[in-house]
Design goal:
Blueprint: H1 28-38, E1 44-47, H2 54-62, E2 69-73, H3 80-94, H4 97-105, E3 112-115, E4 122-125, H5 134-146, E5 154-159, H6 164-167, H7 171-179, E6 185-191, H8 194-202, E7 213-216, H9 222-235, H10 242-252, H11 256-273, H12 279-290, H13 292-300, H14 304-315, H15 323-329, H16 334-346, E8 350-353, E9 356-359, H17 362-372
Helix pairs in contact: 1-2, 3-5, 5-7, 9-10, 11-12, 14-17
């Protein structure tokens, strides 16, 4: 383990945004798997819970790829015309305006395009006024495909792709009919709701059935995360011992976001208060206290059945669909439990991993334990 010649006092851990560079943790095998797919003519379907590092993984992989890429967060889109507008704006961001002028003129519905003379920021909007709105997407995506080169395919990343069902019920069928004709684009579909994503790509009745290679992103291995955290503290000459790193990872279950968050806050606390034997436990308590109001609000927004299920998962080791779990929680109907779990997963409260259901946020899990003991 090579020690830096000069002490670097910048916190070596990062959370809450796309992670890259020295903040990116391992994922060597996953990067190779993504690269293999992108080097072919196939598309990728990447599924993982929110804040698991899907976007960071894709952006890290593309750092060494010469292909041009476009990222669209489907959560920010409400209409088909909004989807087309955002796509076209992204295209303007990576290609020259002069190269786009003639192509845009051939669109069946001409967009309104304006350029800020000072910032050069491009603004794009469509006003279809009752015309077939799918023509907007078809023209934009066909234009994007026309810019592709044989050796440098264009990468189009659609994040939280399960949102397509919300935008327009017919959009899946229409979008598939467009994308299947594109030989110059690798599409990457990211999604956090596993059941919905698998319905879109694994259900034989779905237009996107088997449209891409399916990949589930697992937690970063304990050994990899252990080495990453140890290196981060060591390189900044900040004290932490192996037992404390193990305690940290045990609490977060190696969830990328919460592990980086806890390591980040522990590093700050060690810098402020020097070494503490219970710095991990004290930092966990501190984070739970900081978010006390947020967790209380989350709890208040749950209906009574959902509260019982989450409290049961927090406090009991029983399988949620077992009769023992029903007796302990007072929810004796397995169908009611199943519906509640499905709903809580879709809302982001729970994740399904390793054949078990767990509360996504370990700090919220601890808050519930303490709340139920009051």
């Amino acid at each position: 383990m090579g020690k830096l010649a000069v002490k670097n006092m910048e916190n070596p851990f990062k959370f809450g945004s796309v992670v890259g560079g020295v903040h990116f943790t391992n994922r060597v095998n996953e990067i190779q798997q993504v690269k293999s797919i992108l080097n072919s003519t196939n598309h990728l379907v990447l599924i993982a819970p929110r804040r698991f590092g899907k976007t960071s993984l894709i952006k890290k992989t593309l750092e060494s790829n010469k292909s041009k890429s476009i990222f669209i967060d489907m959560q920010t889109i409400n209409t088909v015309e909004g989807f087309a507008s955002k796509l076209l704006k992204k295209i303007y961001d990576i290609f020259t305006v002069e190269g786009l002028k003639n192509k845009v003129k051939s669109f069946r519905i001409i967009p309104d395009v304006s350029i800020n003379p000072i910032t050069q920021e491009v603004s794009v909007s469509f006003n279809p006024q009752g015309e077939n709105k799918i023509h907007l997407l078809e023209d934009v995506l066909n234009m994007l495909n026309s810019f592709a080169e044989k050796k440098n395919r264009i990468i189009c990343v659609l994040d939280e792709f399960q949102e397509i069902e919300r935008i327009d019920k017919s959009l899946s069928r229409q979008l598939r009919s467009i994308m299947q004709n594109h030989s110059g684009i690798n599409y990457i579909f990211l999604g956090s709701q596993e059941s919905m994503m698998k319905y879109i790509f694994e259900n034989k009745k779905s237009p996107f059935y088997h449209f891409g290679s399916l990949m589930n992103l697992e937690p970063i291995s304990k050994n990899d995360f252990f080495d990453f955290i140890k290196q981060g503290f060591y390189n900044t000459e900040t004290k932490i011992d192996d037992a404390q790193i193990t305690e940290l990872l045990l609490f977060t279950s190696c969830h990328p976001y919460y592990t980086q968050q806890l390591a980040f806050t522990i590093w700050n606390n060690v810098q402020l208060h020097n070494h503490s034997n219970d710095v991990v436990g004290n930092t966990i308590t501190e984070i739970v206290q900081i978010h006390d109001y947020d967790y209380e609000r989350l709890w208040q927004n749950l209906n009574n059945t959902d509260r019982k299920i989450i409290a049961g998962l927090s406090n009991f080791d029983s399988k949620p669909l077992s009769s023992e779990f029903g007796k302990k929680t007072g929810v004796n109907s397995s169908s009611t439990v199943h519906s509640a779990i499905k709903r809580l997963i879709e809302q982001g409260y729970l994740i399904y991993s390793g054949n078990s259901y767990t509360i996504e946020d370990p700090y919220f899990n601890l808050w519930i334990k303490k709340f139920m003991q009051q």
